[in-house]
Task: inverse folding
């Protein structure tokens, strides 16, 4: 599958209370069962290391278990939206997952647009009602810039 064509939800996304968030705008998947690569497009309210999208993750929609996390080593202040790939993502084609972003820096939190679905059926916006996985490894070791 090719890189996604993206219309970002917002160039500076925030939640209803004004808290900056990382929106997952699109997901493109390549590979085969048990060995997929996900190219995830994110719009985030990055301002530097004090506020930036520090990871995106793939979570099992049924169990809430972390399947894969792509650490983002730096902020993307001048690159919005941005796409980063990661893998291998070890899932089956029909396994239902949620792809969600995370904001790091001075305030660490989830929130924002998540996408759910499967490789087989595609991914659509969903409400993220999964538990926080903020203490589950791997975790960022800091922010480069």
Result:
């Amino acid at each position: 599958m090719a890189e996604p064509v993206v219309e970002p939800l917002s160039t500076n996304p925030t939640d209803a209370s004004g808290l900056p968030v990382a929106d997952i705008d699109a997901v493109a998947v390549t590979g085969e069962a048990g060995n997929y690569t996900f190219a995830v497009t994110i719009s985030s309210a990055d301002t530097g290391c004090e506020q930036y999208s520090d990871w995106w993750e793939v979570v099992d929609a049924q169990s809430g278990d972390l399947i894969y996390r792509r650490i983002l080593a730096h902020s993307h202040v001048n690159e919005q939206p941005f796409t980063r790939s990661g893998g291998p993502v070890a899932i089956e084609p029909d396994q239902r997952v949620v792809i969600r972003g995370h904001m790091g820096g001075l305030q660490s939190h989830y929130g924002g647009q998540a996408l759910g679905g499967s490789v087989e059926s595609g991914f659509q916006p969903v409400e993220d009602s999964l538990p926080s996985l903020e203490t589950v490894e791997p975790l960022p070791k800091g922010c480069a810039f």
